[in-house]
Amino acid sequence: MAVATGSLPWSGTRTRRARFRRHPVSAPICVLVVDPAIDTAALEYLQQPGLAPGEVVAIAVEPHLPHVVAAVEALRRTGYTDAVVSIGQFDHEDERIAILDAGADYALDLLIEPRELGAWVRACCRRLGRDRSDAEPAGPPEHTGPYGIALTWSDRSIELNGRRTPLTMTEFDLMAVLVRTAGRTVSREYLLMIVWGITSESKTNVLNAYVWSLRRKLATIGAPNALHTVRGVGFALREN
C-alpha cells in the first residue's frame, strides 16, 4: 500500500497533497480528505503492510465546511468513483450530512484512533469491491507505457530502448498516473487533485509546467510525441 500524506500543519492553501509516501500513488482506491490538525500517527499507521488495501491518498483541506465540501465536489467532478473519506472536527450533524451529500462515503471524527481508521478504509474499499490487499506487490512496482516506455519506482526513472532519464518526485507522480491510464484521456482536474491536491487551477499553471518538463524528458529517451494534449479536457499518454 502507498499512502500519500505528509507534514500536515496548515500552510495557507486550501488543499494540498503531502510528501510522505512509500512510493508514488497513481491510481488511488481511497482518497482521505483530512483536517491538517489530524494526528499524523493515524495516517502513518496506514503505511504498515496489510493494514489498508491498495493505495490511499490523503489531501489536507482547510478546516472550514465550505472548503471541505468544495474539495469533495471537485474530486467527484473529475469522474473519480472510488472511496472518499472525510476526516475532521464536526460540530453538528448538519456538517456531516453536507459532506456526505457532496459525495463523501464517510465523515469521520478528527480524533479517530489509528486502528479504527485502518478498519474504516478497509471496510469502505470492500464495499466498493476494490480490496486489493492480498495482491499488494512485494516491492516497488514497474509499469510499461506506450512505445514500451518503462517506469521504474526504485530510482524514479523512465527508460526506452536502453535510454534512461531520472524524474523529480512530482514528475514521477504525474508520469505514474499517465502510464497507469495509458491510452485514455485524463482530465486536468483529476491530475491536479491527485498529484497536487489542488481543486482549482485558476491561480496556478503548475500542471502545464510539469507537462512541458515531462515532454522534454520523454524526448531525451526517444518518445517526443508520447504525451498528447486533449484540448479542453486534459492529457493522454499514447503512441498516436
TrEMBL record:
Residues 139-239 form the OmpR/PhoB-type domain. Gene3D superfamilies: Winged helix-like DNA-binding domain superfamily/Winged helix DNA-binding domain. The keyword Methyltransferase does not apply. Keywords: DNA-binding, Phosphoprotein, Transcription, Transcription regulation, Two-component regulatory system. GO terms for molecular function: phosphorelay response regulator activity; transcription cis-regulatory region binding. Residues 139-239 bind DNA. It is found in: Cytoplasm. InterPro entries: OmpR/PhoB-type_DNA-bd (IPR001867), Sig_transdc_resp-reg_C-effctor (IPR016032), WalR-like (IPR039420), WH-like_DNA-bd_sf (IPR036388). This is Two-component system, OmpR family, response regulator PrrA. Pfam families: Trans_reg_C. One of its GO terms (biological process) is regulation of DNA-templated transcription. GO terms for cellular component: cytosol; protein-DNA complex. The keyword Nuclease does not apply. It comes from the Bacteria.
